[in-house]
Each structure stands twice: as C-alpha cells, then as structure tokens.
Amino acid sequence: DVNMAARRMAGNVIQKCAGKLEPSIKQFLLSSMSGDYKNPPHEISYHGVLYNVFLYAPQIVSGVVPYLTGELLSDKLDVRLKAVGLVGSLVSLPGSTKSEVFKPVFLEFLKRLSDRAAEVRMCVLEHFRTYLLQNSSQSEEAHQIISALSERFLDYDENVRKQVVSVVCDVACHSLTSIPMEIVKLLSERLRDKSLLVKKYTLQRLADIYRASCFIEAIKSDDYGWIVGKVLRCFYDKDFRSDAIELILSVSLYPPQFSVKERVKRWVRVFSGFEKVEVKALEKILEQKQRLQQEMQKFISLQQLSQVAPSSSI
C-alpha cells in the first residue's frame, strides 16, 4: 500500500531527525491546539500528526500530550470526540499508558466513560474493548478500566448499557480470567434491565461466557454453573418466550463439538447447584417439551389414520 509505505518512510525520517524536527513539530501542534495557527495547510489534521509522531518518536510530543486533557474537557462535543478518538488510539499503543506524562491524560480519558454525551461514552467503550483485547489483564490500567466499565452497567442510555455488556463479554470470552467473577455476576443483573434490548442481549452473551468456560480445563465445570441457573430463572420473566429459553439451553450453552455424553455430564454437575426456583423452571420447561412431543405424536397418528381410512373402505 502506497500510503503505508509513505507513512513508514516519514516515520523513519522522524526517528532519525528527531532532534532537528522537534521544535517545528511542537510549534505546529501547540499552535494548532490553541487555535493560533494561521492559514494551516489543507487537509492536515494535527490529531493525525500527533498520533504518527507519537508512534515513531514519542519523546518529541511528550510536552504536547498533556494539552489533550483540555480537549477531553472541552464543552464542544466535536472537540471531545476528536480528542477521545486520538487518546483512545494512543492508549492502545504498547507502553503508552506506562508513561508518566501520559498518565494524567489516561485518567481523564477514563472519566469520559461518564461523559454527558452518549456518543463520547460509546467511543471510549470501543477503544477500551481494543485495549483489553490486546493487553494483559493484569496491568494496573486494565484493572482501572474493568472497574470503570462495571460502573457503567447502570448507564441511563440503553445502547451504552448494551455496549458495556458487549465489551465485558468479548473480553471474558477472549480470556476468561481477565474479568473477575464478581464483575460477570454484576453483568448478569442486566437480565433484569428495564430495556428488553439489553435483557435479550445479556442472555445470549452470558451463554457465550458459559460456553467459553467449557474449553478451559483449569476451571471447574461448576464455577460458571450459576449462569445456567440465571438462564432458567428467565423462564418466569414475561419478556422472555419459553422457546427462546429452551433454545439457549439446548443450543447456545455448549460448544457444537461437545458430545451428548459431555453435555449430560455437565448438566448433572450444574444441576446439583440449582436453587429450588431454578429446578422448578427446568421441570416446567421439560413438561412443556414433553407435552409438545405427545401432541405431535397424536397429530402424526391422526395423519396416518386419515391416509389409511380411504384405502380400507374400497
């Protein structure tokens, strides 16, 4: 790709000539960020310049990065969005969050999860998804992010709540130990969300987490068995159809390659941990399934009789 080749070439130049270029680059960035730059070159975004310089020679812009805090706090939505996009991209770069210069910016970026604009919160969530999927969950920054995410399960915007569930579940499915069990249990409370969109999405994603746990031998099979109980409890929720619950239980909980024997073995194990209300829900589902099978058998018998009757009367 021509653009990528040009970018790498420019990056090499910046790395080799960092000392000579630093004053000019800093002046351009500071002037652009303050709005003092007169007649800026067409189609040059100082956000793009800052990112690319940080990528190849972070020392050049170390004195400029702190100014991004002001943009993250701007009253103008478009300014905050652009700043969130830039800082989010910088956060994902290896080692960036370890920089003492960058830490105050990172902390302010973290606070944008509670920004008054839903668009900003959604944008921050996407960047944190990328960060957590690419970086170790054991870092201090990862713990801060996961803690901040758990506080947004009660966001007043249903789309943001759904997105938080999405991010946490994606990270958990990618690396189950990345998300503490208490966070997963907190997430499961969205099954009682006031939004049907969030409730249905949470149900499916919890099943994804349980299915992911089936692949990890180090995890006891019943550690996540409570998820099956949570699914069963949805049987009593008028917002969920019983056939939808049955579909989750029969199709979504276990990997397709699992044999019937493996599934039965896990069902026996999780069943021992069910509470009475969950056992009752399972009984009701099985009763419905049995009733349906009986009705189908009657229907098939009647169909067969109706086909035989005309020929016997001839």
Give descriptors for this structure.
single chain; 314 residues; mainly alpha; 0% strand; nucleus; ARM-like; DNA damage; Clathrin/coatomer adaptor adaptin-like N-terminal domain-containing protein
Chart the SSEs and their pairings.
Elements: H1 2-16, H2 18-34, H3 46-56, H4 58-61, H5 68-72, H6 77-91, H7 103-111, H8 118-134, H9 140-150, H10 158-174, H11 181-188, H12 196-213, H13 225-233, H14 242-252, H15 260-271, H16 276-312
Explain this structure to me?
This protein is 69% helix and 0% strand. The protein has 314 residues and is mainly α. The protein has a domain of 99 residues. The longest helix has 37 residues. The radius of gyration is 28 Å and the shape is elongated. One of its GO terms (biological process) is mitotic sister chromatid cohesion. This is Clathrin/coatomer adaptor adaptin-like N-terminal domain-containing protein.
Structure, briefly:
Keywords: Cell cycle, Cell division, DNA damage, DNA repair, Mitosis, Nucleus. The protein has 314 residues and is an all-alpha fold.
Helices and strands, in order, run as: HHHHHHHHHHHHHHHH
Question: Helicity level, as a percent range?
Answer: 55-70%
DSSP strand tally? 0
Quickly count the helices: 16
Distance between the termini: 80 Å
What structural category arises from helix and sheet content?
mainly alpha
Please state the average pLDDT score. 85
> How is the quaternary structure best described?
single chain
Relative strand content: under 5%
Question: Largest sheet, if any?
Answer: none
Organism: Genlisea aurea
Pfam families: PDS5
Subcellular location: Nucleus
Main location: nucleus
